[in-house]
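pasting for ref. prot 1 ->
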Amino acid sequence: MVAKGDLVCVEDIKGDNRGCLTDNMEVNNNISKDRHWECVKNETFLEKRDCCSNAFRYRTIQDPASQRLTWYKPPLTVLVIKKARDAAVYSPFVQLVQWLIEEKRMVVFVESAVMEDPLLDQFGAFSTIKDRLMTFKLGKDDLTDKIDFIVCLGGDGTLLYASQLFQQSVPPVMAFHLGSLGFLTPFRFDNFQEQVNNVLEGHAALTLRSRLRCIVIKKNDSKLENGKNAEESNVEKPTSFLVLNEVVVDRGPSPYLSNIDLYLDGKHITSVQGDGLIVSTPTGSTAYAVAAGASMIHPSVPAIMVTPICPHSLSFRPIVVPAGVELKISVSPESRNTSWVSFDGRNRQELVHGDSLRVTTSIYPVPSICAQDQITDWFDSLGECLHWNVRKKQKHLDELTDLTHSSSNDTLDSLDRELNDRE
């Protein structure tokens, strides 16, 4: 049986796979009951053979409001991530952690660096719960299957950091706005108890924010492209990253133009001559990409955005390609310099001639919990954070003291004549 809708998010604990099931994929009915959550859609069900036979006749469009958070059993563990080096976050952090431990009886994970922060010792409440916190270190401890959901206190950077912590399946993320911009953090901290309770009870909508899987293949790793694995070829395994916003390829410190070849599913599309190239998710379309002239895409749209950075061409416009394609980016053989690549602003490294970057849509999205719903949250962020379409209202003619008798049939010439007659 398959869902009639486009998207159903499920999790298989055995393989730790959570992804999007489309009309031509079967749902695994043997999913482990140990999982704590899933994203469900209320849709009618069709036999798989019916979907396949009628695929050419119609296409079902997903309703964004149909993605809801459902817990199979009450969540027990929560990861709390706070913005670093911000004194305004300390008090909310202590209040939240104390409430989760003492009132909700949950196991709370925090970064090990939090325990070493001397400013937190100024809060008496923190000393009473400090010994009951679980800690982890980035790059050393694996949080897979240990966390039921995540709470972020800060700005958009805290959500990006949470995405970085989970390079496969990501628990649902609840982000409180305690940072600067807060485009991705829809919750306000004033009544955090009520809002967290709503999430724990499953009264919340979800936005599945797609991520990009980026694989850097070095020149010496060419044997891997010929079907051999790293062990057989005696070369280093390609570096892989998952990004929530964008991967950026630029000219670095070089004074020369970037000369980058862009391939889509193996076909050469174009060569980028300019300062660089941005490959972004719909979530990242409102970040660096929009500053470079790209359109803003709702995070539920399955797409990849390709945006040039200051191209030396008047006709090179940003483009949107399907989410299922593979992009390959490499330094052109004719390029005078190398390029540099960064992943959500981190892990910056050089791409030399012969290196390549492969970009595809990951099967592991970031399930972001909505304060209201997918549509309202996004447009509220556009208005509050980016002041989208903010303009002083044009006055109605009745509000103009010298034009009180005009009608919809009046022209500028007739209005001018009327004013002249009055004089």
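and prot 2 ->
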Amino acid sequence: MADVRRHDRAQLLLVGALALAVILLSLSMLLNSVIFTENLATRQTHADAEKVSSLESAVVEGVGGAIEHANRRDTTSFADRNDTYYDVTNALIPTLANYSATDGVAAGIERDGVYQGTRIVDANRSTGLTNRANESDWTMVNDSRVRAFRLQVNVSSVESGDEVHIQLDNGTTHEVIVEPDGGGGAHVRIERPGDTSTCALEAGQIDVTAGSVDGEYCRGLADLSTDAPLDEPVNVSVTNGDQIRATYSLVVDRHQTGLRTAVDADNYPGSCSPPSPPTYGTASGDDPYTTPAIYAATTYLDAGTTDLDYQRTLRLAPDEVGPAATGPTFTTFNVTAGETSTIDWKVADPDGSSDVGTVNISMAYASNGTGIADQTYNGDTDQTTTFTGVPNDTAVYVNGSVSDGASLRQVTERHDTGGCSP
């Protein structure tokens, strides 16, 4: 009987071991199945993410290209640029959506508005970096974010001329200097606090905000593009601009009204506004000139697959450096000077907000700066300010400032209440 019991216990142990093995094998198969499924899902999600990323890149490139195309049109009308932008993107958006659908990505692409700035152009190849009065030392830009700053330089004019300085000043001066290299050629020298570097200039292409010379990476310019001063509002001025022959263009975030008034005040501080001639013309052929332009545009992207949902608002401002421009700006500043003086003004904020903060309009004697009158507005974007009892036949400065608490923009015009002499 003892042998039988031992035999039964052995059988039970064997059966138990077999059962345990089956359980462990089943658990192993189940675990492997889970791991395989998760790996497959991970691979699928990764593939979907790559598809959505490719779509986003295509939207950025396509909409950015539409902005550049609209800004290059020979027009003085912002409405025309805006219409061109919408015409181009009307064709682009369904093309991108249809293409992404064939790749398994359902896409919704919606335009969310544009922000107006100013494009500055000098397309006259026979002149240098001078203003309309052919002055070689002058202010090009005042207190503005700058993007797409490109020059095409006649290299032979550099080899036979003196050095030309482009100063970028945000409180600290940085310089882009175009000069002979001492060996019969030319180069670009970049002077930054504590650093000097050079890049050979052969084809004459300088892209300040993209950080390249002749289409190649230029460390000094790249440092300007990834660090101050181009990641914030900056003043741009030129010294010895008549020493080379070049064309150039750039886009700034200020409206024409504020930009032109600001640079005229810098270049012609004793002249009535606008001076004659002003710093810039207003149409092509009157170089250098300004036109209203699209500084930035926003687009909403909603993309999805069976395993991934993605939504993002994209801000497109080709070659903009650093964070988005946020400073409010004057879009209108029209002064009628007299014993009763009126200032018609409008301001706008880059994000489309109706609350631009505080606007101050003031008037002071040009002779000594003593204030005559001032008025402050909170949250208003469109007003007419009237000052009465202003002395007749008196030179005055009319000042406007707008602040959203984080940034401040100012305009100043000089007028004579008896009328400015020609």
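The CA atoms of residues 68 and 318 lie 8 Å apart.
The longest strand covers residues 106-122.
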